[in-house]
Amino acid sequence: MADPYATLGVQRGASEKDIKSAYRTLAKELHPDRNKDNPEAAARFSEVTKAYDLLSDKDKRARFDRGEIDSDGNPAMPFGGAGGFGGFRPGTDGGRSGGFSASDFDGFGAGEETDLSDLFEGLFGRGPRGAGQGGFGSRRRAPPPQRGANVSYRLKVPFVDAATLRPQRIALAEGVTIDLKLPAGVEDGTQMRLKGKGQPGPGGTGDALVTVQIEPHPFLTRQGDDVRLDLPVTLDEAVRGAKVKVPTVDGPVMLTVAAGSESGKVLRLKGKGFSKKSGGRGDQLVTLEIELPRDLSELARRLEGWSDDTNPRNRLGV
User: Which of 37, 52, 35 is nearest to 1 (CA)?
Assistant: First the structure.
């Protein structure tokens, strides 16, 4: 992937607000729902989402700026390899299927540390650590056979799938494809262990360690177990009241906007948030944003001769 700053069209020193604003603008323009017949826009949308995913995470952004990771979030290896010198790194296609391609594994996990005492024992009988346990040339018990190494995977999960716990399909290193059930309360960075799905070894097979990475959504954001949305409404809808369609992780629903609603008013949709570890789901919090019409001439004509005598800044002491 290209430089994430260039992808979003911001400078390296851009603030979090500038990065979010740039992403939202591009996401609205390139979203697949608006470009169903434009595959280039869909690919561009994926690149923009990946760039925002990295730059919106303070830790990842700092590590990228220091050159510790590349634009895909992978370690910047000194030998240019994936997953270590001579290593192997499978990965996902980044799509909604949860499938993996050869670039999204995190390698074969932490390897076993070499015990140099075995080398001394092979040359001299008993290594330095065993000098007081039988003397020079004494035998030691053979260590138990080691289990195979664990295999690390990174699973990219769409925001809506994570909120609704939609099963994800994952392809393992040995070529087996399984459907993975997400745990209640899943978060970005949640790690799941699949017993016996790692590398084989004389002492048994290691495990697969799957780390969940929740992809950002162009309109919805997460706050704990709740989902937040800034909802634009017209001046007419705010003054007179209206029923408007609102996107949620479960699909669009109708929301009643009361007459006389103001910008900043928060409405709550029960049970439309993320699953909770304790059971149930959080809510969706909808913040109203009143948008004036682009052409104000008609509104100005209708308001001619009328003025609002109230002072909304009284509470500010001015």
Answer: 52
